[in-house]
Amino acid sequence: MKVGYLCTFTPKEIIYSAGFQPFRVFATERPIELASAYIQSYSCSQARGALECALKDDFYAFVFTRCCDTLMRLTDIFEFAGKRVYNIEFPTKIGNVEYYLRELKDFVEVLRDWGGEVSFESLVESLKLYRELEEGLKQLFSVFPDYETAIKVQQIDVKDAIKLVDEKLKSAKKEKESPKVLITGSVCPYPKIYDLFREAGFSIKDDLCTGSRFFEYIYPTFEPEDLEGALRFIAEKYFYKSPCPTKHYESDRRFEYVIKLAEDCDAVVFLLVKFCEPHFFDYPQLKSELEKMGKKVALIELEFPVVSTEQIRTRIEALREVIL
Amino acid sequence: MISAGIDIGSITAKCVILQGDKILAYSILRVKPNLEESAREIFEKTLELAGLSKEEVDSIVATGYGRGRVDFANKKITEISCHAIGSHFLIPDVGTVIDIGGQDSKVIAVENGKVLDFVMNDKCAAGTGRFIEVMANALGLKIEQIGELALRATERLKISSTCTVFAESEVVSYLSAGKKVEEIIAGVCDAIAGRLIAMASRVGIRREVVLTGGVAKNLGVRRAIEEKIGFGVKVPPEPQIVGALGAAVLGSG
Amino acid sequence: MRELMASYYMQGHQAECNAWITSGAPVELLYAMDIYPIYPENHGALIGATKLGSYYSDFSERNGFSRDLCSYARCDIGCVFAGTSPIGGLPKPTFLFACNNICNTVVKWYEVLSRIFKVPLFILDTPFIRKELKESHLRYVEEQLYDFIKFAERITGRELEDQKLKEVIARSVEGVGLYAHCLQSARNKPSPMNCFDAFVNMAPIVCLRGTDHAIQFYVGLKKELDDRIKQGISAVDNEEIRLLWDNIPVWYRLRWLGEFFENRNACLVADTYTNAWTGFGELKGNDILSSMAEVYTLSYLNIGMDRTAEIINHLIELYDVDGVVMHSNRSCKPYSFGQYEIQKKLSVPSVIIEADMVDERVFSEAQVVTRLEAFLEML
Fold this sequence. Notes:
Number of strands of chain B: 9
Number of domains of chain C: 2
Number of helices of chain C: 18
Strand order of the largest sheet of chain B: 3-2-1-4-5
Number of strands of chain C: 8
Helix content of chain C: 40-55%
Distance between the termini of chain C: 35 Å
Oligomer: heterotrimer
Number of helices of chain B: 8
Largest interface: A-C, 45 and 43 residues
């Protein structure tokens, strides 16, 4: 049974270990119609697209983690629309592991109510599988950033996902190194957008929630010995995952992270979903830091579903011409 | 008792003169920038058609977004109430009115001519007459051609943007990709119907569903709406004058 | 009122140390340490009321901040770039204090400020209480309150004295009590005040909560309202329809909206926005920090939709209103998303108007008039 989730901070390992199929919900190619009866048009199209998907497709439940104001309200809206929901209160301020551990324990209870038992063994197995998937994706992306695969693996069984990544890795050809563009933003579930960059002559590196932010983690170094230990492992794993603008970090970890990623790139593209507050607040100051490093910066605003790509193509080609 | 209803919309002005439950005359004109002048003009033209003089009209009710500018009206009522009453006058068992105007579209839940609840489109033009006008322009078509053409399509393309400007560029890119005009048009009609039905589901859709406003004549939009709600809708013979008619009914006491 | 707030801003400029603070944060801790609180949100409202929203927002937009961002934030950051504002700009902060019990927008907004001013920022992270409040949530917030005290003590070199905090809390509770009494005078029929009066008179409970100034102000206001009731003076001459307002005011259209309703014999007797501050009256004098954690975590915008609808239904009953006017506020997602669903849970009819609290460019008068008139006709 599918359990839908939207945010990469969702502990999918726990959902999987309880016998459910974690399924990342994105906007699809379908136009957004029904969702506009539930939420205003100044919500981002990722939220509206996911709601549209939830209304039309079959899910057992949805798990939310608080990240932005829109998702915070979306939980209630999903419930109002007759969906089974649960929200894990992932802290906005990264730091207090003990608090989040308590939230994860509560989540295990919720899964039990849904008919899914989480045992130490099943959770450790799930952790191992997801880590294998993450390491595999990391390897694949170091040769060729394959977004179609990165998106697909979030919607299938993790074991099949590992196999898929393995196959892709075998046939992957190394991209030419330059010029290189760093694409930063939240989600972009349309592989054709990434192709536009390649067609314009760029090789790609990313800081996206449908790309590397799905698989970049600094793993805790301890071996879990019991269920609590495994949950603690998850809490720490997600605290130290690639930083996101919806979280508040001591020092400016998010900016430092993007700046470091941009070092070997010639240009940076902010690929942002219209109405995405967390990213748009960061944009001006982060842009100015990147420009100080001599990077060319462009902003591309998206609304899902992306049907017409011609304007975006023009924007990307113009950027390519500027850095020639 | 003779009453007149004047509806000053964003694109057209409408006037209906009513005696009892008989429509004596009506007319429709494009509005001029000067709304006061448009109001006088449409009123005089309709009087002429009815063969009446101003003095013979007992009450004048103004509606529509320019209602405040009809200085000779006895009363001003919003088009929401007027569409409910006008629809009820024509189709007594109306439960839902979907009015697709030039800049506003609205869905009104009605019972015995009384407004139970209503929703209107938010600020953008998606789901309004303006949206169709922009798309027709982009395709080099006249608005009147749209409905017929849409019916001819065997397939329909997806227009996904909610924003009129983005939707226009989608339409243009379909054209440059060599897609058939009727399929694009069918997509446009579908997109509008989708927006309207989403709005309608906020107040609930109850039979009979009556379409009013200029776009109601568009067969493509009508068919798309019917497909989405799963039953037929009713369209008055002259859907554009329903607001003015409601105003005239209100004026007749 | 005007003098009170002028002197409040003046003192902010003279204060040895000050903190910029969000409207839902526990300001009592600052007053207890003689740290002067500065409210950018109040500043944003003031800019909106002077109809300069788009003017100051433009300074932000030219620096790359999207027009889709919160207009309070755009105006406030815009004033920093402009180097001034209708009141000559806000004094530079010693530090920043943001609590996300009103939105996560303030976290991002204050991060921006912290980079501009290069001053420390403390985020008080309150979990969203969608259903029940858990012990673990309270403990999490309470621990952060201790962290905050240490943080503020380190920066200012001052120490928080228990006795002083107790006194501030007592004044805060007293002020909120008086304030709530003022708002509830609108239960009288006809009402001696409307929500536009409430909006104009809310600044002291936001900015000066915990001081004698707020107490004195609401003592005066209470007397004035009690007198009005005695003399039979009403806010709207011929009150036929009583309404409730939902969401932040449309600051640049306060007078226009006030006249609109008055001309139609309708009185917006109360609103969810100013009533949100009455919740801060639950603070307890003993075990202050745990009570503070609870009260501030359960703030009006930090709770689930079921509870919000319950509160609105309670206000509907308390003020005996016939309908609700909901402002769908482009700038405030947590306040606005869910309104479509809440509408269906209310015991009286409601209408939604589209606007923005400060940015007058998104206000369409014709659309708003039609909606409101049709709603009044329906009632």
